[in-house]
Write a structure and sequence with these properties.
Shape: elongated
Order of helices and strands: HHEEEHEHEHEHEHEHEHEEEHHH
Number of helices: 12
Number of domains: 2
Structural class: alpha/beta
Oligomer: single chain
CATH topology of the largest domain: D-Maltodextrin-Binding Protein, domain 2
Radius of gyration: 25 Å
Largest sheet: 6 strands, mixed
């Protein structure tokens, strides 16, 4: 089909107008997370006080923990610096959406969070439902805990509460409104057994310096992931998928976990690890 000069002129004006309209839209597109990290030469890690993952020194304002150690390892491998950005578990998805930080480890890939942010297709680590006791010869299976003399403290309405309610029908269970109240109930001796996910038990063990942490059989495990901003460019998400897989499979993540526990004065061999295989094997 032949187009005359007037038609060409109209097409040219339309194209120019389209360019004027498109330019602001392009200008408003934020830089990808990958480009931002490479440009500033810094990886920004979301952190919150939650041992053994993140621990803040109030005097120095510095952060430690196995999550921070993992961030440092990733930053070294990328040849960039690590910057810790304080947040909360509840605010982490919004912080990622707003570009306040680039990732946060041990952010579970729940259905609600997956509506707002992306997750690399690799685990950071695994955790399991466990218990703490002062008993020198603790139970090794959940069935051994299912007896009337087993007095158990657990946070009310949690996944932990729901699981033991379904599966431990003979035990004496006390449900407390908050984790702090649950810890106090156990610490006071009113319950002999404290049921939480095992990293929380390890953190409590670090704090009080006593007690045995057990992951009974069969192991009830859950995956802990890492959150990233949802964006058209998937380079950062895909890079993290590759690197987290590498760290998990070659033992880097668990080595960093064990190193942190040892630095805090706890023998890593005395508590469960963070690999699915070791948790299930016992």
């Amino acid at each position: 089909m032949e187009i005359g000069r007037r038609g060409l002129r109209h097409l040219g004006l339309a194209a120019a107008a389209g360019g004027v309209l498109a330019a602001p839209a392009l200008a408003q597109q934020p830089a990808s997370t990958w480009d931002g990290i490479r440009g500033r030469r810094a990886l920004r890690l979301g952190v919150t006080s939650s041992e053994p993952w993140y621990a803040k020194d109030p005097a120095a304002g510095t952060w430690s923990g196995c999550g921070v150690a993992l961030g440092r390892q990733m930053a070294r491998d990328m040849d960039v610096e690590l910057q810790c950005v304080e947040t909360t578990w509840a605010n982490a998805p919004a912080g990622l959406q707003a570009g306040q930080f680039d990732t946060m480890f041990v952010l579970d890939p729940t259905p609600a969070r997956a509506l707002a942010i992306d997750f690399p297709f690799a685990p950071v680590l695994y955790y399991a439902l466990g218990f703490m006791t002062r008993d020198g010869d603790p139970a090794k299976t959940w069935a051994e805990l299912d007896r009337p003399e087993a007095t158990i403290a657990v946070p009310l309405g949690t996944a932990m509460d729901r699981w033991i309610t379904r599966n431990l029908t003979k035990a004496s269970i006390t449900r407390l409104a908050t984790i702090d109240e649950t810890l106090l109930h156990y610490q006071s001796g009113r319950s002999k057994i404290l049921v939480l996910y095992h990293p929380a038990l390890v953190a409590y063990r670090l704090k009080v310096g006593q007690g045995t942490v057990v992951v009974p059989k069969p192991a009830i495990t859950s995956v802990a992931g890492a959150g990233v901003r949802r964006e058209p460019d998937k380079t950062w998400r895909d890079y993290m998928t590759s690197v987290l897989t590498f760290y998990y499979e070659n033992g880097t993540t668990e080595d960093l976990y064990k190193t942190y526990l040892a630095q805090r004065g706890l023998d890593p061999a005395s508590v469960p690890g963070i690999r699915k295989e070791s948790l299930e094997r016992g």
